[in-house]
């Protein structure tokens, strides 16, 4: 599972760099589908990863509103802070943690129970799914998207 | 890893059912980004999963041209055939297979070497990425996309 997180972290960094070459207007433009803008989608995937993994760590996440991160560098900073807080947990992941239970209150106030392994995979699928949306929007504004390839990223080099 | 494949197979099936409610014209319409049409994208992710996993099994995949699958039911049939051929390998996956080497000739004729574990994750990221693209196109045509949530799918029920 760690390799998939490492893949996604690389891809996320590449998308931040991609954002440096795009106007703020395009980054914040409301678009069809997903979370509505390129920058908000990137904020959302950082935020959701941070929130769930904080939950698994039994910590209360300290989350800024989007308005405080609505520029590429501020979003990079937020992402770096979240990464520092959650990556030790992900690097320490082992199969014995798969079936631990997390109780979580959903948007309607109901309590739900999830396996830790379920949340880890949910986070991964969520991030990769949203990155797919960014690639469509990238073509809409006439720019080459970041490659989604997991191969040829050096992730499996010794 | 198996749970992520099971997630994706459920999502793929849901998208096939979603296609039943959309006109053929919309399904085949050329769109911006991704593989260019909804139906071709679905064909592509089935095809790429089938090709890579056949490679890992040392088998030569028997692949039809897209034109033979350019209807939802034909694509379902192709997907079912591929699934029958490759799912035993995925269900039999174990950590001892991670570092096996696959030699593969790329589009420019060069030979490349990949770890089996790298290819398995590449396939997963590839499928989820393309599904994210479908969700944007779904909104474009005014339809609710299939949820990308991995939680609440019963994948971790005993």
UniProtKB/TrEMBL annotation, chains A, B:
Tagged with keyword Zinc-finger: no
Residue ranges of coiled coil: none
Pfam families in the record: DinB
Record GO terms (molecular function): metal ion binding
Keyword Transport attributed: no
Keywords: Metal-binding
Positions with a binding annotation for a divalent metal cation: 44, 126, 130
Similarity annotation: Belongs to the DinB family.
Name under which the protein is recorded: Putative damage-inducible protein DinB
Organism: Paenibacillus prosopidis
Source lineage: Bacteria, Bacillati, Bacillota, Bacilli, Bacillales
């Amino acid at each position: 599972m760690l390799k998939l997180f490492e893949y996604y972290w690389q891809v996320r960094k590449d998308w931040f760099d991609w954002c440096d070459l795009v106007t703020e207007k395009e980054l914040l433009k409301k678009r069809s589908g997903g979370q509505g803008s390129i920058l908000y989608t990137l904020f959302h995937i950082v935020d959701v990863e941070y929130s769930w993994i904080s939950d698994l760590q039994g910590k209360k996440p300290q989350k800024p509103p989007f308005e405080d991160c609505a520029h590429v560098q501020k979003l990079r900073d937020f992402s770096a802070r979240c990464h520092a807080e959650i990556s030790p947990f992900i690097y320490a992941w082992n199969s014995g943690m798969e079936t631990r239970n997390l109780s979580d209150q959903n948007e309607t106030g109901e309590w739900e129970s999830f396996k830790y392994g379920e949340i880890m995979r949910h986070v991964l699928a969520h991030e990769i799914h949203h990155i797919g949306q960014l690639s469509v929007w990238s073509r809409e504004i006439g720019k080459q998207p970041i490659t989604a390839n997991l191969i040829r990223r050096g992730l499996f080099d010794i």
